[in-house]
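Appendix B, example 12.
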Amino acid sequence: MSINEHTGLAESFKSAGFSAQETTAVLTEIAKMRAEEKSFAEKLEKDWSAAVLASECFYAILGQVNEVFTKYVKAMSDESFEPKRHTYTALSRLQRRAAQQYMEIITLVKNGFSDGAFARWRSMYELSVISSFILKYGEAVAEKFIEASESQDRYDWAMACGEFPETKRHVTFGDILKLCDMDTEVWRDNYTVANQTVHASPQGTFGRLGTPDGEKLNSGRSEYGIAAPAIQSANTLALVSSMLFSVFPEEDTMEKMSLAVKWLEQLIDIYSDTHDKLFPDDDN
């Protein structure tokens, strides 16, 4: 990389006090980093192209299901729509946010950042918990959730469910987790790992997802560990989407969603088989 290609950057280096030799050394390192990035991308594309494509197909398939569902909802009479208007509004926004996070995770997966991808999945999982809670308690809670978007209230909107004593000062995510209508035990281990990955924990620091058994501390890209966040994010997006579609059950939507679930099974198999092929001695 030549400094002459970036005249503005050259001036910035000079203003910061770098000598010509120091500047060249920095840019040489950047050129090396970019070459390594390109080489890694080519290898990941070769090894994981089918898996990543399966993830992208899943996003597209769910997008098609959502189109069918949205068309159905828009055609509903006010009499049918109004009793669940807030629930639909809240869950549709949560589903859209989950869909965006899903694509963020796939972007991280494509670049070999399993820790970052799993940390992002933590947010997706929390969206599924909130969706389940709102779906369980209905309009009153959904309306308070929507109203809270204009405030600094994180979880106190959940008081509208009627399950908490009036003397309770604040509702926590843990409170909602206990009351939501989904099997949180199934996700407990993954959520624990995701929390460790997000926070400055010793487990998340020494037990990196991108390195088997933490044998080599890795601060760069790795093919190891990317299957887990890819699979979990797909599972979670399917769950949040199903919750949304259940607000107004409709035959065409359910039929297409069943196809999406079947594709999800294929996606899981593709990622699992690819991981096993690349890491045959892995016991994790």
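DSSP finds eleven helices and no strands in the chain. The chain has one domain: 49-278.
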